[in-house]
UniProtKB/TrEMBL annotation, chains A, B:
The keyword ATP-binding does not apply. The lineage of its organism: Bacteria, Bacillati, Actinomycetota, Actinomycetes, Propionibacteriales. This is IMP dehydrogenase. It comes from Nocardioides marmoriginsengisoli. Residues 178-304 form the Alcohol dehydrogenase-like C-terminal domain. GO terms for molecular function: oxidoreductase activity; zinc ion binding. Pfam families: ADH_N, ADH_zinc_N. InterPro entries: ADH-like_C (IPR013149), ADH-like_N (IPR013154), ADH_Zn_CS (IPR002328), GroES-like_sf (IPR011032), NAD(P)-bd_dom_sf (IPR036291). Belongs to the zinc-containing alcohol dehydrogenase family. PANTHER family: DEHYDROGENASE, ZINC-CONTAINING, PUTATIVE (AFU_ORTHOLOGUE AFUA_2G02810)-RELATED, ZINC-TYPE ALCOHOL DEHYDROGENASE-LIKE. The keyword Zinc applies. Its cofactor is Zn(2+). It comes from the Bacteria.
Length: 344, 344
């Protein structure tokens, strides 16, 4: 089959690779009908170490179950399924508590002999624990929204949930990528009144306003912090969501969080150390969030996607076939596209 | 009057200072009947910058109200009162939300013209917001427990509360000082089942066991981490309380916290930067806690102190008069004494 392989920084290709086969009785083979490119994919795409071997890539996909192993019981051949961006056994203590990203037997797509999501098909380990069956649909808008349950919608929800967003809350969201915009949607959904979106791409922040942002701050750094403080009587907001991961975003978060507030980080940190001394302690700032166990949130979010209450799929602004994937990476890296849908 | 003045590192004296006077209509003058020395006092005692001027010190006290300003309404002359370790106006937004340490008009004892607590008397700003009236008592054990509401009991409670300790929880407490031991008590009070106390002073950890610690780990660093992991099937505990503040304690906390768990920091951080990169993010570790708004907790804890359900005053193991204060500092710094009571 054909699947996406990252060969080096800026060099992503669609190569011929071995067809997936059931290797454990808990596996399933899924024929991918929709996948996408993630902001996280841009990190290795931008910075892959030249010493590394080519790697399979892609971690968001949905598709049709083609084959199941002998121990798979809840997933059937022919099911339309969505896969969260990590696989998980569904039975260990961490899966039971809704932290599937820490699953005892879990792992990432595109690593350790497991296919990446940006290809024609995927061998899915722990199919019962990993996959969620969806109602069949041909509606392209609905398919796009369902696909966001794999990662970006669930990640925005994780940000808002771990921050404990509640009715009447004030929230700053740092970053106008897909996760930032869906963090806005998630915070609004949980009842936040005031949502300040920090981002400087007009077309993206407009979508953020459609999702519920009440204010947009385009400035960054000290100027951005000052703007948010001005908007909040000098105090900052109770919740700050860092949907970026760079140190500059963390510093911005520290600058705009209210005393007693919460910073929820869902952007992959691009730093090892961060300011965490007397100032954060003195202001009783909580740092929470982390990699999102999106599998845990699909049941809660799915009904609202199906009935159109939320339309997270609006983050997709470009569609490519398999051959268009290299150009899709380029477009996302150059910020021409917000999020690229792949229809193999 | 006589009051404690820190003149330099290791040089604490009881000096003659001006008698306190009402300077604002919201002030009260409190004649101190019991005060104490805090682990936090040992930081300037150990490291005071030689370039600094002498400073008044002490931030935990109770006593009798001698005089009140014209706008004080809830505190009366003759009341026995306890003061939290910061003063606060009781009316601003932060005070209303129970974060009196961020009060718009609050501040620390012993600074900016306000008396320290280790002296004969104190001018208390914002007496209505700051002080809490207690039932009169001559019972020395009860007085000791009441005095802990000023800081160490409330700080332990803040650690356990911000960490969200709940029935059946597993908790590691790092540090066997008064705050560590009272964090054990607070975690037990909130229903924790398993409380691992990391400390290496036998007499202190024994008191920790009396307060509810189920396990004691005397080892530190990697060995200590390994021991806690061994005690918890390799996983660590859901909650970790850092009652120390050194980087070594933070690293220990990171090492023993379970995926999806919470580190609550109530020890004053002795660092500016800390590890907060991919590992904490990947394990969904929350960092919370901070300086404790003990004023917010007195109403909740007071009944249990009064009826003897909790006896936090057991942390006091030495009593000195004013003249004994320099020796009290020395004894605490050399770990001869756990916590020193001062009866002026």
């Amino acid at each position: 089959m054909r699947a996406t392989v990252l060969h080096g920084a800026g060099d992503v290709r669609v190569d011929d690779v071995p067809d997936p086969r059931i290797t454990a009785p808990t596996d399933a083979i899924v024929r991918v009908t929709a996948a996408c490119i993630c902001g996280t994919d841009l990190h290795p795409y931008g910075n892959m170490n030249p010493a590394e071997q080519p790697v399979r890539i892609g971690h968001e996909f949905m598709g049709t179950v083609e084959e199941i192993g002998s121990q798979v019981t809840t997933i059937k051949r022919g099911d339309l399924v969505v896969a969260p961006f990590v696989y998980s056994d569904g039975t260990c203590e961490f899966c039971q508590m809704g932290l599937q990203t820490s699953c005892d037997h879990g792992g990432f797509w595109g690593a350790q002999g497991v296919d990446g999501g940006q290809g024609e098909a995927v061998r899915v380990p722990w199919a019962d624990g990993t996959l969620v069956t969806l109602p069949r649909t041909e509606d392209p808008r609905l398919i796009q929204s369902l696909l966001t349950l794999s990662d970006v919608m669930g990640t925005g929800h994780h940000a808002a949930t771990t921050a404990g967003v509640r009715r009447g809350d004030t929230v700053t969201v740092i970053g106008d990528g897909a996760v930032g915009l869906l963090s806005v949607l998630a915070a609004r959904r949980l009842g936040a009144d005031r949502i300040i979106l920090m981002g400087r791409h007009g077309s993206r922040t407009s979508l953020g306003q459609e999702f519920g942002a009440t204010d947009v701050v385009a400035e960054r750094g000290e100027q951005g912090i000052e703007q948010v403080r001005d908007l909040t009587a000098g105090q900052g907001t109770r919740v700050v969501i860092d949907a970026v991961g760079f140190m500059s975003a963390y510093e911005q978060a520290i600058g705009v969080v209210r005393a007693g507030g919460v910073i929820s980080r869902v952007g992959l940190p691009q730093y090892e150390q961060a300011p965490l001394g007397v100032p954060t302690w003195f202001h009783n700032v909580t740092i929470t969030g982390g990699i999102a166990p999106t599998r845990a949130y699909i049941d809660e979010l799915l009904p609202e996607v199906l009935d159109g209450t939320i339309e997270p799929g609006k983050v997709f602004d470009r569609t490519v076939g398999l051959d268009g994937i290299p150009d899709g990476y380029r477009a996302m890296a150059q910020r021409e596209a917000l999020k690229v849908l792949v229809t193999p």
